[in-house]
Amino acid sequence: MLFHYHFWTPYVEETEKFYEDNGFRISQRIGRYQGEFQEFNPPLKWEDFREKNILFRIIEARKGTINITFGYGKRIMFDHIGFLVSDKEREKICENAVKLSWKVDKRERRTFISTPYHFRIELQTNTDVVDSLNSKINLQELKLETKKAGLESDLLTLFGTSKNRVYSEIGDVVTIKQAIINNLISSPIVDPNGVRIINE
């Protein structure tokens, strides 16, 4: 199940406000402050720490079966998309990634697959990364911009199905152009990192 995307962005506070204004719950904020990583999770608000010069590594916004994360970067940079899978599905997808000669990085909490399209794919088996598996609010589809053709056929090989709901168009940058989200209040809207969100 497609559930996730991650950006690096200079617009960290603006991105958080955008998703919060559209009904997402901020569940986590982790940033480097005075040389070490610390948590600045809600109920803390930006007024409580804005002047502290925190370098945010990750801020997590959740709604239904969707988990969107972002952290500080000097420029907007799309990093990865994520899928919730079973242990069995993960093993098969990893085998397929090896056949494609894609690098697989298995970690304790999640697995990352590096693609030749200059973004990564996260495989997540822990269902606690979303608020509800039964919600009607979900990430229906993503349209990516990539610099080379072939993504759809490679994803078919990787997942063994065309139901991964990720599509692409050729362009000058690697990013997410559009996300279709079920049961979102506003539509269409554009987040601070250029992702056009459509309610379906």
Please, could you describe this protein's structure?
- There is one protein chain.
- This protein has 200 residues and is an alpha/beta fold.
- The chain has a single domain (2-199), classed as 2,3-Dihydroxybiphenyl 1,2-Dioxygenase, domain 1.
- Helices cover 18% and strands 42% of the residues.
- The protein contains four helices and 14 strands.
- A nine-stranded mixed beta sheet has the order 3-2-4-5-1-6-9-8-7, with helices on one face. It has a five-stranded mixed beta sheet with strand order 11-10-12-14-13, with helices on one face.
- The longest helix has 13 residues, at 87-99.
- The radius of gyration is 17 Å and the shape is globular.
- It starts with a strand and ends with a strand.
- The model has no long low-confidence stretch (mean pLDDT 94).
Question: How would you concisely characterize the structure shown here?
Answer:
The protein has 200 residues and is α/β, with parallel strands linked by helices.
Biggest beta-sheet profile: 9 strands, mixed
Please give the radius of gyration in angstroms: 17 Å
Please provide the ordered H/E string of secondary-structure elements: EHEEHEEEHEEEEHEEEE
Categorize the overall geometry. Answer: globular
The appropriate CATH architecture is: Roll
User: Between the first and last Cα atoms, what is the distance in angstroms?
Assistant: 17 Å
Determine the number of helices (DSSP H or I, runs of at least 4 residues).
4
CATH topology: 2,3-Dihydroxybiphenyl 1,2-Dioxygenase, domain 1
The CATH C-level name is: Alpha Beta
Query: What is the structural class?
Result: alpha/beta
Fraction in beta strands: 35-45%
Q: Largest beta sheet: what is the strand line-up?
A: 3-2-4-5-1-6-9-8-7
